[in-house]
């Protein structure tokens, strides 16, 4: 790899342009200098006057280990050559005129430094940022590469403001990406609107201060520096500090005026931030500076006169104050471009300079490292930019006069204030953390009404929420105070309700609020009413005509990759089977299915290679008779319906020539009942779609049985429309970055008992062969889980997920555990009623710690799932490819365990006919002989004959888990669920959920404690183990692998329980590291010194 770096050096002297005795620049040609613009002249003069406070800004990105450093260094040098005006020097010519000269060839090498930790790169960049740039010797933009750290390569750049009117980071990074990726440069590298090279917060104020207790450093009293030992000191080198947070963009909607020209979000945030500071500081006026041309023009020069807004907490509604500020700014007219007097404001709101979307290196996920500026002469600068999804990124920069430890707290409370009901109240004086002159305490305060609302209007919002509850849960009897979850609500239905309220009613609700306040009346107090834009855009008519051909969606592409890897077999078949307890009219059922196929063209789609990729082509309704997709019971020749179901489940689809579904009726000869096989290929059907399908059949079948055509009250958007729109939009890089950051550093998933599985399987090739077991919960246990979910403001899935994770952790799963799960993928409310494959697989990271309680684990699970919902459009394979270790050579996912919920499964129920009679049916569980994943848990929430029940289906790969280990996992999980169902279980430490097995437990295969002595030499250990081993009289060596002699996990867990009862601290993972007589003897010797 060192050959890649022959052209680069880290020596500082090599980074300067060599000059002769007369100071002339090497390679400078007489007469090739260019005159400076007025902006450059002023910037140069300022540079000469204030070299100790350079107008410079450092940026940095983690690029990971996948980037090629040599190739990147070459691309950076090429950028200096090809971007006009970038590789320049500023000096006086022979006539004494200040000019800028282009230097060719490039003699400015890229600095490359080796580091051990990321902090070294940050410290080097901050030093470079603080060092005055020698504009006559160096280019205004310099690049640095750092290699060898834990995050792979780090790209750093330091820019001087002198080029701010001519170049932008968007231009520079776009050119860099094109060169690195081997693509042609864009035809026109124009600066992007509102872009630049620096943040422009160097202008000093006149000494004004913010009346906020505790804001400023208390240096007069000789207080020593407070050191945060968890924070790198290099980040405080420049005296300024920087903190970040995200805010839902919709949180600004209540503060926007309902009429007239909408103000920019910078203006709105300037008013809100000023009001927050004013209210927290005894109501004094606060002046907030803004960038010039805030309404959306190109970024203004740093030396232009800054517009200001003056705000005071005076009891007026915030919406009115935002409107007034916008009007005041508009009335100021044209502003001079001459250097203005320094502004009075110690507070400023600026645009966040984050050009990361322009840095798109092939195979690399660039993640910005926020750095404090070299110079911040205001006390507080709030930088605002676009965040992931529909969010805003807020970064608070605190100047050198401000305490370096208050900025994070201040930003946290400001964001919490915006997100809570206090900010929307007519008078925003009761701020979190602000001094109050008495009255109601914060925990006793009643939530304020939404902006511009009174109690009557709030009741109106509650009625709208209740209407959505009733429709989504099919419960017209629900009242304003009924619990959403008591009527069958769950997280998927909650997502649907929230999406419909936002798109159809312009009412915004957060999913955590719904879990915490699950009644329509309680939720109305936390809801926010928008300005009508969301509802208007959603109500706009859309074309429903089916496109004949469409690309695959991102989720379908992900599935197709795995489908191809398994040689297009039956691994992605979804076999459902129903037993009808009452006679069903098969002809009417077929016609009802045709009604569904007419509405959902995705179910009548062929897949094949076209136009250089896989495409899906809709089959016209008139062509369906040419496809063999439906079979009547009299056409089924099989006498054993179970064998017929198994044969159907193993059908190998040819998706290029046959429909992705097969429907077959058959009969049980013993009972005479009809059995229905519903086989779908996963690429057209997800979990949400199953319940949609059953709902539509429940409506269409009674109509067809009565010889009527169903009259539908809505028309779902076609899946192909979703696929086309997603394909055009492309991958959301910000969403991918969210997952990469969340999962950075995780290891590939491994079997729970890896050492044993490896020893038993040897070098056998990977196999998906497996099986499944069912865990049925007693009614008391199910009731206890529901009670626990309500107590914790969580869902049943959150609780079940936490219970499974706790059980696996007790069996040896790591403290940093990655678990896969499915997300609905329906982030667009237009497609809530569409049958198709939207589901994405996502991975969440659980971190276990000593003394963790069950409540803490449930909260972590809930937050992991709910906070990641906006980012679930990114399939897991793209996330895994973007992680630093990239694709796994053996195809393993980053998770071994997968947990999913089948909420309110509608495969058990009935069709109610028009005459009032019923056709009841029950699901027949499929027999599974394969498992794509190591361990998969399906939490089945079912309603049968009006009774709710819970069971868990556990699928497993036989190569990873033999029968004994499967039994151990099942038994452990059963015991953990029983503990979870106990009252006050939430406060239990996780360690108490799984006590050691009792001696009389059949799984305990060792003698009772009184039959053993504490001394464990090799002879006694051999005496204990030999009866458990399949040694057939052989003499087992001291260093032979005991697992090769049939010592399974059940026996090992029993040994652990026995040794722990004697006071030895041993665990499964430690025993598996060296499963030999010598290894265990030494481990027990160590454990004797660490008695429990």
TrEMBL record:
Protein name: Condensation protein
Keyword Transcription regulation part of the UniProt annotation: no
Region (Disordered): 1-37, 431-453
Protein origin, superkingdom: Bacteria
Organism: Brenneria nigrifluens DSM 30175 = ATCC 13028
GO biological process, one term: secondary metabolite biosynthetic process
Keywords of the record: Phosphopantetheine, Phosphoprotein
Record domain Carrier: where: 456-531, 1012-1088
Reported cofactor(s): pantetheine 4'-phosphate
Biased composition (Basic and acidic residues): 1-19
UniProt keyword annotation of Phosphoprotein present: yes
Database matches in Pfam families: Condensation, PP-binding
GO cellular component, one term: cytoplasm
GO molecular-function terms, A-Z: catalytic activity; phosphopantetheine binding
């Amino acid at each position: 790899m060192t050959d890649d770096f022959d052209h680069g050096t880290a020596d500082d002297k090599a980074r300067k342009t060599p000059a002769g005795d007369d100071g002339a620049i090497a390679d400078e040609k007489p007469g090739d200098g260019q005159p400076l613009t007025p902006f450059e002249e002023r910037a140069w003069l300022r540079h000469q006057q204030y070299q100790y406070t350079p107008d410079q800004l450092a940026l940095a990105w983690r690029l990971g280990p996948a980037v090629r450093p040599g190739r990147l260094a070459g691309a950076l040098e090429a950028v200096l050559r090809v971007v006009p005006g970038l590789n320049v020097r500023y000096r006086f010519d022979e006539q004494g005129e200040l000019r800028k000269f282009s230097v060719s060839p490039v003699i400015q090498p890229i600095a490359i430094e080796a580091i051990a930790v990321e902090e070294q790169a940050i410290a080097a960049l901050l030093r470079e940022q603080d060092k005055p740039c020698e504009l006559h010797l160096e280019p205004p933009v310099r690049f640095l590469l750092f290699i060898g750290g834990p995050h792979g390569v780090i790209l750093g750049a330091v820019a001087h403001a002198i080029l701010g009117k001519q170049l932008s980071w968007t231009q520079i990074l776009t050119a860099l990406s094109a060169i690195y990726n081997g693509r042609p440069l864009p035809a026109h590298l124009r600066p992007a609107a509102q872009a630049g090279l620096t943040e422009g917060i160097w202008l000093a104020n006149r000494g004004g201060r913010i009346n906020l207790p505790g804001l400023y450093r208390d240096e007069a009293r000789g207080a020593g520096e407070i050191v945060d030992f968890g924070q790198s000191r290099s980040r405080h080198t420049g005296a300024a500090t920087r903190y970040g947070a995200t805010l839902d963009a919709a949180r600004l909607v209540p503060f926007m005026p309902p009429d007239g020209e909408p103000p920019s979000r910078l203006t709105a945030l300037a008013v809100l931030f000023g009001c927050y500071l004013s209210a927290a500081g005894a109501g004094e006026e606060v002046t907030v500076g803004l960038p010039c041309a805030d309404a959306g023009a190109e970024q203004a020069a740093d030396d232009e006169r800054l517009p200001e807004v003056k705000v005071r907490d005076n009891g007026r509604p915030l919406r009115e104050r935002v409107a007034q500020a916008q009007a005041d700014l508009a009335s100021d007219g044209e502003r001079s471009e001459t250097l203005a007097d320094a502004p009075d404001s110690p507070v400023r709101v600026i645009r966040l300079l984050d050009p990361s979307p322009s840095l798109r290196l092939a195979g690399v996920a660039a993640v910005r490292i926020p750095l404090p500026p070299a110079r911040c002469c205001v006390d507080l600068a709030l930088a605002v930019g676009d965040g992931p999804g529909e969010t805003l990124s807020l970064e608070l920069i605190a100047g050198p006069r401000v305490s370096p430890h208050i900025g994070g707290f201040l930003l946290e409370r400001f964001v919490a204030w915006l997100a809570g009901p206090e900010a929307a109240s007519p008078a925003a004086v009761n701020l979190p953390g602000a001094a109050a002159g008495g009255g109601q305490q914060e925990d006793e305060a009643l939530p304020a009404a939404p902006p511009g609302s009174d109690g009557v209007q709030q009741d109106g919002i509650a009625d709208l929420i209740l209407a959505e509850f009733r429709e989504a849960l099919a419960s017209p009897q629900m009242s304003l105070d009924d619990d959403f979850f008591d009527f069958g609500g769950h997280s998927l239905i909650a997502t649907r309700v929230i999406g419909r309220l936002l798109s159809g009613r312009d009412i915004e609700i957060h999913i955590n609020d719904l879990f915490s306040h699950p009644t329509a009346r309680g939720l109305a107090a936390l809801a926010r009413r928008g300005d009508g834009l969301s509802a208007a855009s959603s109500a706009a008519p859309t074309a429903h005509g089916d496109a004949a051909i469409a690309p695959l969606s991102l989720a379908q592409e992900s599935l197709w990759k795995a489908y191809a890897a398994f040689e297009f077999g039956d691994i992605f078949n979804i076999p459902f089977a129903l037993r009808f307890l009452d006679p069903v009219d098969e002809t009417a059922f077929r016609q009802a299915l045709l009604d569904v196929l007419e509405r959902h063209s995705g179910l009548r789609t062929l897949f094949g290679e076209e136009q250089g990729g896989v495409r899906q082509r809709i089959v016209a309704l008139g062509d369906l008779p040419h496809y063999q997709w439906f079979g009547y019971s009299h056409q089924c020749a099989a006498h054993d319906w179970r064998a017929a179901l198994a044969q159907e489940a193993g059908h190998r689809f040819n998706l290029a020539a046959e429909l992705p579904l097969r429907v077959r009726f058959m009969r049980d000869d013993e009972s005479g009942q009809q059995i229905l096989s519903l086989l779908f290929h996963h690429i057209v059907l997800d979990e949400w779609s199953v319940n949609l399908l059953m709902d539509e059949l429940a409506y269409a079948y009674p109509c067809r049985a009565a010889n009527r055509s169903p009259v539908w009250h809505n028309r779902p958007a076609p899946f192909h429309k979703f696929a086309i729109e997603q394909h055009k939009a492309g991958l959301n890089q910000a969403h991918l970055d969210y997952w990469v950051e969340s999962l950075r550093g995780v290891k590939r998933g491994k079997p729970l008992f890896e050492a044993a599985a490896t020893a038993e399987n040897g070098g056998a090739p990977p196999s998906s062969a497996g099986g499944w077991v069912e865990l049925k919960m007693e009614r008391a246990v199910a009731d206890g889980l529901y009670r626990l979910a309500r107590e914790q403001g969580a869902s049943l899935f959150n609780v079940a997920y936490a219970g499974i994770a706790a059980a696996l952790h007790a069996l040896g799963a790591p403290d940093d555990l990655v678990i896969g799960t499915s997300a609905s993928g329906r982030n667009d409310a237009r497609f809530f009623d569409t049958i198709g494959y939207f589901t994405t697989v996502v991975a969440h990271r659980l971190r276990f710690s000593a003394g963790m309680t069950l409540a803490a684990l449930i909260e972590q699970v809930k937050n992991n799932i709910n906070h990641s919902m906006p980012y679930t459009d990114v399939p897991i394979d793209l996330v895994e490819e973007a992680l630093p270790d990239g694709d796994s050579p053996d195809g393993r996912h980053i998770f071994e365990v997968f947990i999913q919920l089948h909420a309110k499964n509608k495969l058990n129920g009935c069709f109610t006919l028009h005459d009032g009679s019923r056709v009841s049916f029950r699901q027949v569980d499929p027999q599974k002989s394969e498992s794509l994943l190591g361990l998969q848990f399906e939490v089945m929430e079912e309603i049968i004959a009006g009774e709710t029940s819970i069971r868990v289906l556990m699928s497993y790969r036989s190569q990873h888990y033999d029968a004994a280990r499967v039994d151990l996992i099942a038994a452990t999980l059963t015991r953990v669920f029983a503990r979870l169902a106990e009252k006050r279980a939430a406060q239990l430490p996780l360690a108490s959920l799984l006590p050691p097995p009792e001696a009389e437990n059949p799984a305990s295969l060792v003698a009772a404690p009184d039959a053993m002595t504490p001394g464990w030499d090799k002879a006694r250990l051999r005496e204990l183990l030999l009866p458990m081993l399949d040694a057939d009289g052989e003499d087992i060596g001291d260093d032979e692998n005991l697992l090769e002699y049939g010592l399974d996990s059940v026996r090992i867990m029993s040994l652990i329980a026995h040794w722990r009862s004697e006071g030895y601290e041993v665990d499964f993972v430690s025993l598996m590291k060296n499963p030999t007589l010598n290894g265990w003897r030494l481990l027990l010797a160590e454990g004797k010194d660490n008695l429990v």
